[in-house]
Write a sequence for this structure.
């Protein structure tokens, strides 16, 4: 019960009027930076960090963590409305969220996304509250072989999902891997495959590719179909929130599974991006409507959003208790803690009780504040789709250009984004699947680095991938996932 | 242009799906080959302490080569989906270019004159040209979005956006 | 929003009072100053730069604002090249880390510190040899002996990045002791420390700030600091030890030292009074309580210098890096 007392003390710290005000400002700022691609998450928090420098640490971290919540919520908005994921972990949300918006169900998709995010984050916070010290130790078990096994499992749970030509799926996925390999080879510290170009040393950033492939590509497709978004006639009903909520309990199984995947990936720390992809892949396989995924299924929005936010939230746990960031955003928050003279680590929970419990309380409150703010805005967000195409299209392109520029402050990347737009258009028309390509682009480098580190550590011995129960069971699970479609096929024929 | 005319010339395909399949698979082959050679030069073998820099890229691109070769063969034999349908018709291509070309010009504008002036001009022209809005309305929206972006990025978030390599219009305002 | 408004108002007031008097005297920035960080968000250089931004804003040390920009591509080459190309631009400064030396040497990127104008040294970052507290090694000597006994490449040394400070320090340690470690390049300093706690690696050369939390929690043990003098901070960090109690590596019998430059440079071809402005600005930054606290928390070596002295130090350090990297075979092969 010690936790309960500490938590209530935390609430009393967090609930001062000043902190409440910061909470709301934080959530709103967060939604803004989450909506703008390129600014979201890590960059956004890094930018706003000096603003909080003049505040007391507890207030500052409350504001920053609310910005974090806001950004998490905000990322889903552009994914659903315009097919532009502002963050890596909202990519999987576009798969079903955007088709829903096109069918005039933007309000439903947004409500489902926000509610799922809230549930995911809430479960994770509850877990942090009561199981923090127990779980934190688990992250220590993760070395390079374990990291590789998590990447492997993510790829395996996602593979064999496309309906189109397997050769095209393979080519698209490998194209993603190939692009991920351009730039620096972090194992040798050498430039590679940049063909002597200083611009290409930056590599192909995921955001640039996705803004182009999904955002610009989608505008080109819309142009081809005539000057309108298919969803422009969407009926905007303020009751959409309640109507969607009535449907959600049906998908409790998906929510539960996604929470588990998310929490586990956040702690381990595999991160929110693999969590969202893995959860989407699992939902597609296990759901009765799995076949219809990608055409606008609510479950296809619930699964990745729940997992991403459960992971994003649990990622704060290893950050606080061990000082390892589970996500790039957590890395920047960690920098903030150091600047205020707070030393994240096992002793933070003992020495800075006010701060830790204030933060945890603000996670509850910020999450609720965030949910209220974004849900009241659902009709407003959905109404954006009613703005005529000839106004919204140039604005989207301007936002895409700004987003592409802010990633690395490089104009070359803006051109690259435009090129990806054309690639996206051609791929979509020829049925080259983009999801495996983006997955490979996001996780390719991490997978390669952890594999090579594991092999270097063991001096060329492959048995490291089965050296202990943990890594062995994750690898085996991955192999099962990989072979599952094959087995299903054989069974179907028999 | 009138819609009726559009219907007459607009439906003519620029290329069939089959042609595009062949072109794209060909481009994949070219990409894979370039990368294969580059990774081979990096060292695509297995050294004492594990795979070298080019090991993964090399085999990844070998897979691209194989997969694209199969797609190419299927496309030539007409076995890909809807081979005879139009990939894009003349009318559609014209529509797409109406967005793509101005977007490219806009990015060029951003490079030369910075993000703020170019965005205002771009939004205004797009609305006037494709949306048939009045100049006043379009310019008002274009300028206000640019100003809003300026305040949000340069003033509040302290993020410097591109200023224009040839001429920076903001220097006129002493900013 | 409120604090921004306040800063703007204060700046306006200060400007209106002092504006006329000062304008005739020294040079000062007339537009926002771009603060280039040749590393990604969240790293040591990034933290320091954003702290400086905060300090400058809080204490009104400059009328214009300082805007950090991360240009990390090619191990920071992107940032250095941007500064090199901005000849004569007094509104651009860059914070350096060891990649000032390692990037041109390892990548063959065409720049050196001579292409920029040295402003001042802010501090020197320390490196400490750490092992897991459950291992039996109490001194650096014992650990090195054990590594020798295990044979080359058996002991795993974790560090941040490849061919950068951590690996060069490892090479330097190998050279001094005749052992060979299996160097594993990991993502970031915090990551490295946790891998050591989890016993996935055998030792690290983390900066103090990256491992202090684990040291205090009793899971890591510092063996020696890679500097010619001990760290001056005598406040107890654990029950029994302060930073000052960690012996230098030479004392511990493994004669190696290495410190990392945290310094400021400007583009080439700027006027002397422009350089003086920044020298003065960073002098003021170093005097603020926030900076002093940051230095103590991170157990930095607070040496600072500017002008000729600074340039000479940089040159000496460049030679040191060239030597070490040449021996390790890290130098870029001349382009054909």
């Amino acid at each position: 019960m010690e936790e309960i007392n500490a938590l209530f003390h935390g609430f009393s710290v967090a609930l001062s009027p000043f902190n409440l005000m910061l909470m709301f400002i934080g959530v709103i700022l967060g939604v803004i930076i989450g909506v703008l691609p390129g600014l979201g998450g890590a960059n956004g928090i890094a930018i706003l960090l000096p603003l909080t420098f003049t505040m007391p640490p507890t207030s500052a971290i409350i504001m920053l963590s609310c910005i974090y919540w806001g950004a998490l919520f905000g990322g889903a908005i552009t994914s659903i409305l315009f097919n532009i994921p502002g963050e890596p972990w909202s990519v999987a949300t576009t798969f079903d969220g955007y088709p829903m918006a096109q069918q005039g169900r933007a309000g439903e998709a947004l409500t489902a996304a926000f509610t799922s995010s809230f549930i995911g984050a809430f479960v994770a916070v509850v877990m942090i509250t009561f199981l923090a010290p127990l779980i934190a130790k688990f992250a220590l078990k993760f070395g390079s072989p374990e990291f590789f096994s998590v990447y492997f499992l993510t790829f395996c749970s996602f593979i064999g999902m496309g309906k189109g030509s397997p050769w095209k799926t393979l080519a698209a996925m490998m194209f993603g891997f190939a692009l991920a390999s351009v730039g620096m080879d972090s194992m040798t510290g050498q430039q590679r495959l940049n063909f002597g170009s200083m611009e290409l040393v930056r590599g192909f950033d995921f955001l640039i590719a996705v803004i182009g492939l999904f955002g610009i590509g989608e505008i080109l497709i819309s142009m081809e179909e005539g000057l309108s978004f298919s969803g422009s006639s969407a009926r905007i009903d303020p009751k959409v929130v309640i109507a969607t909520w009535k449907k959600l309990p049906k998908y409790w199984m998906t929510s539960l599974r996604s929470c588990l995947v998310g929490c586990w990936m956040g702690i381990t720390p595999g991160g929110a991006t693999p969590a969202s992809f893995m959860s989407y892949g699992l939902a597609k396989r296990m759901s009765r409507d799995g076949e219809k995924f990608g055409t606008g299924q609510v479950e296809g929005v619930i699964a990745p959003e729940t997992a991403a936010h459960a992971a994003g939230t649990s990622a704060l746990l290893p950050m606080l208790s061990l000082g390892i960031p589970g996500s790039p955003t957590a890395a920047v928050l960690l920098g903030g803690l150091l600047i205020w003279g707070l030393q994240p680590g096992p002793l933070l929970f003992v020495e800075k009780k006010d701060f830790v419990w204030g933060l945890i309380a603000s996670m509850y409150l910020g999450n609720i504040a965030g949910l209220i703010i974004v849900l009241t805005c659902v009709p407003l967000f959905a109404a954006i789709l009613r703005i005529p195409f000839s106004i919204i299209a140039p604005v989207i392109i301007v936002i895409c250009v700004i987003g592409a520029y802010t990633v690395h402050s490089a104009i070359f990347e803006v051109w690259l984004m435009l090129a990806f737009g054309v690639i996206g258009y051609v791929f979509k028309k020829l049925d080259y699947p983009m999801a495996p390509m983006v997955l490979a682009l996001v996780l390719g480098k991490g997978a390669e680095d952890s594999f090579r580190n594991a092999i270097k550590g063991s001096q060329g011995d492959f048995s490291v991938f089965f050296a202990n129960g943990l890594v062995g069971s994750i690898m085996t699970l991955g192999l099962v996932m990989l072979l599952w479609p094959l087995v299903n096929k054989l069974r179907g024929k028999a | 242009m009138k819609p009726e005319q559009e219907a007459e010339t607009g439906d003519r395909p620029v290329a069939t799906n089959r042609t595009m399949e062949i072109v794209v698979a060909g481009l994949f082959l070219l990409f894979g080959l370039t990368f294969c050679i580059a990774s081979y030069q990096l060292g695509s073998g297995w050294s004492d302490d594990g795979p070298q820099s080019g090991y993964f890229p090399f085999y990844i691109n070998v897979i691209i080569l194989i997969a694209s070769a199969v797609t190419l063969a299927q496309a030539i034999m007409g076995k890909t989906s809807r081979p005879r349908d139009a990939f894009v018709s003349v009318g559609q291509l014209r529509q797409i270019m109406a967005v793509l070309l101005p977007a490219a010009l806009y990015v060029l504008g951003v490079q030369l004159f910075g993000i703020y002036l170019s965005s205002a001009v771009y939004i205004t022209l797009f609305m006037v040209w494709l949306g048939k809005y009045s100049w006043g309305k379009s310019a008002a929206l274009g300028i206000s979005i640019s100003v809003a972006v300026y305040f949000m990025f340069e003033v509040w978030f302290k993020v410097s956006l591109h200023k224009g390599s040839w001429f920076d219009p903001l220097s006129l305002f002493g900013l | 929003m409120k604090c921004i408004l306040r800063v703007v108002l204060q700046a306006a007031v200060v400007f209106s009072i002092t504006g006329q008097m000062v304008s005739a005297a020294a040079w000062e920035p007339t537009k926002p100053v771009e603060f280039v960080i040749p590393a990604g968000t969240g790293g040591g250089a990034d933290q320091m730069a954003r702290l400086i931004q905060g300090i400058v804003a809080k204490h009104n040390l400059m009328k214009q604002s300082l805007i950090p920009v991360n240009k990390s591509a090619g191990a920071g080459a992107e940032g250095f090249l941007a500064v090199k190309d901005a000849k004569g631009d007094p509104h651009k400064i860059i914070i350096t880390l060891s990649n000032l030396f390692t990037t041109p040497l390892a990548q063959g990127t065409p720049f050196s510190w001579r292409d920029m104008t040295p402003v001042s040294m802010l501090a020197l970052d320390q490196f400490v040899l750490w092992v897991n507290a459950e291992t039996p090694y109490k001194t650096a000597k014992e650990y090195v002996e054990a590594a020798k006994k295990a044979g080359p490449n058996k002991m795993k040394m974790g560090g941040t990045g490849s061919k950068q400070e951590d690996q060069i320090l490892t090479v330097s340690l190998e050279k001094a002791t005749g052992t060979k470690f299996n160097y594993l390049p990991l993502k970031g300093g915090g990551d490295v420390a946790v891998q050591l706690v989890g016993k996935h690696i055998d030792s690290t050369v983390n900066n103090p700030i990256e491992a202090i939390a684990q040291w205090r929690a009793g899971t890591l043990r510092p063996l020696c600091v890679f500097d010619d003098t001990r760290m001056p901070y005598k406040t107890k960090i654990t029950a029994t030890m302060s930073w000052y109690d960690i012996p230098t590596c030479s004392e511990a019998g493994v004669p190696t030292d290495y410190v990392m430059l945290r310094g400021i440079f400007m583009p080439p071809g700027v006027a002397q009074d422009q350089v003086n402005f920044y020298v003065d600005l960073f002098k003021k930054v170093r005097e603020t309580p926030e900076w002093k606290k940051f230095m103590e928390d991170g157990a930095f070596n607070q040496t600072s210098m500017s002008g000729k002295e600074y340039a000479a130090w940089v040159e000496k350090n460049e030679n040191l890096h060239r030597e070490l990297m040449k021996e390790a075979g890290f130098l870029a092969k001349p382009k054909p």
User: Anything to note?
Assistant: Residues 92-173 of chain B form one domain. Chain B has a mean pLDDT of 86. Chain B is about 70% helix and 5% strand.
